[in-house]
Design goal:
The structure holds 2 protein chains of 2 kinds. Chain A is α/β, with parallel strands linked by helices. Helices cover about 35% and strands about 20% of the residues of chain A. By secondary structure, chain B is of the alpha/beta class. The chains are: A alpha/beta, B alpha/beta. Chains A and B meet through α1, α6, α7, α15 and β13 of A and β6, α1, α2, α3 and α7 of B. Chain A: Its main location: nucleus.
Amino acid sequence: MPMANNIIADGDHVIFKRDGTCRVFQIKPDRQAYFEKVKFTVNDLIGQQFGSTFKVDRGNLVKLSETKVLELEQVASEPGADNRNLLDSESNQKMRLEDIQKMKSDGLSGEKIIEELVENSETFDSKTSFSQAKYLKKKKKKHLQMFTVLRPTARLVMEIFSKEPAKICFLRPDTVSQILNFSNVMYGSNVAVVETCQGLVLACVLERLGGHGKVIHIVPNTSDTLCRQVMNYFNLTKDQLDHFYSVPITCLKVETDGTQHKSLNINSSTEIPGDTLVSYSRTELPAIEMLPDRTDDVNEAEKSDIMTEEKEAEKKKREVKREEKQKRQEAAAALIQNKKLDSLIIACKYNPLPVVKKLIQFLPPSRCVVVYCQYIEPLVECYTWIKEQQVGCQLKFSETWCRDYQVLPNQTHPVINMSGTGGYLLTYTTVSKLS
Amino acid sequence: MSFKEYKSTVEYGDTVLLYIGYNNILPLIVKKGQTHQTKFGALPHDTLIGKQYGSKIHCPKGWIIILHPTPEFWTMCLPHRTQILYSTDISMIVFQLDLKPGSTVAEAGTGSGSLSHAIIRTILPKGHLYTFEFHKERYMKASEEFIQHQIGDYVTVTHRDVCGEGFQLTNLVDAVFLDLPRPWECIQSAKEAIKKEGGRLCSFSPCIEQVQKTCEELTKLGFTDITTMECLVRNINVQNATLQNITLEEQTAPSFTGDANAETDEFKSKKLKTENADVKTSKKSTDNYCFPAAVPALTMPGHTGFLTFASIYMH
């Protein structure tokens, strides 16, 4: 990859990362960011390299050199043996809150403050090396406002949601990773996705296509407010987004004559009723905001009667856009109806079985289907139906158990808290019916 | 074109998978004039030509399904030359290493090529995998397989012990994967292989002592965001389960003039059932509770290995 690719630019989404905390932020001149209780302007980030670490110094960003970063990570120690002589008392720390606040307003560095805190702590020296390290870690978190700016990746975006998994249907990195692998998504695949994970699954699939193939978001007819916010986080290029399509599930029609000929199916896709198209364009509105001026223009045009010509032009523009959308939708529907799909992924809050029943009719044999659900019961139904209908083989129903470890000299153990569930997965491969 | 992209029908030279039953899949290279013996009888290769992938093939004593190969299927049926990585860990590795089309990756050792296939699938066509194997036979077998599977263009297999001799790559890869007995010995070399703008590293080790040493070395060499995790798959089976309902109250003769109207129907239906049932079982006044049950497997692999991931930013 060329180095130019590694420079933070105006308009980019970036990830602020500090220990276990991740936040996504869009870089815009003079924008104020608020991360881990610190406020700062992001101007200084433009032109910097991804992977740089910064310190916040009174609202300004100071870039840290690599050696400096490492220094701060090191832990000093001349430990005590155990904690038999430690008493929990306010007098252990000689410095008072006012002292610390004064040091801060005097512009003393975070390192200096921590040094002072350690010096004025009666108990620090008699703490064990473990608790010394813990103490320093805690103080560092409070007084050293350091973070790294990273290019968003699927992995980092998952970290953002680790504290609020409900927003993405309780998907966990291990489940997302299995969805992507078991669906055999690769460069050039045509993938149909049913998801209500704010566009996370769509973005992950789009990333794995490498700018070839198609991702088709299959949406319910009634949904006006489908959110694909997460797709914005990935800084997808216009070129990549050209491979993204959206089709209401109601537009997909199965050939009823039974002949499996591969002729172009344009006729059936142009027979889409008018109201479907209207609702389609509505579902498109909250999607990726490629054209931010759109809604503003509409309002202004309505207000002013004088600018009728502009209004007309605007109307035409919208008409063209709508036609464009309709064409794209028809193209995607035709692709599905011509059985050109390579993978089907379902990860949503809809009842999966009816969706599975409808969509697998469009899959050619020997293709991968992955159904994810946060609950086990709907997948039990899917499992039973697929087995009975013999529409697939290598039907696999599973969940994953995933545990993090703390690895430190003489204190390695599993992390105390772990995720209890990452949802359930059903995977299988389509087969042609025995004739 | 086998693993590289989907094709619809079988041709000579293809690697096809014979699906005989659940978790029973055999790889087969389709060759003119040859015959394969399955448990359902002889299968002449020529009969497969022109057949659509995913279709059922009749054998003398049953039928099998021919499937298009995928890295996940390959992991299930590849010839084991070593202990291999399975799809749960593989998925996590590919995801946590931030792999996507265009990524370059270094892998040591190649082993049986289970992970390699999944990596190549994800990074092709512009990415590249540099994989290293110190065992000569395994190195040769893996090289052959990649060519056979038509993914040879995306991988360079090298016969070398990276622990002693290093990767000998500089500022080239986005990610490094280590599955070695002493991974800590080649982290310095891995760091040199990773692009200056930064990258990811993963080490897979079955023993915690290995993890301990690896993490120490990673910290020493300036790697950050070091995380260690364990991932296990719990397979679930769906069965029709039956539990017996027992009588909770002392039985009184069913009275149809009883006070609870809701119960009346229940009694009626029970009465009907009892009448229809065998006279001998008429004594049984309880029904069975039947339901579709999601049953986890009775035994499962409880350990595969620890996955340690780390980042190195600009270096």
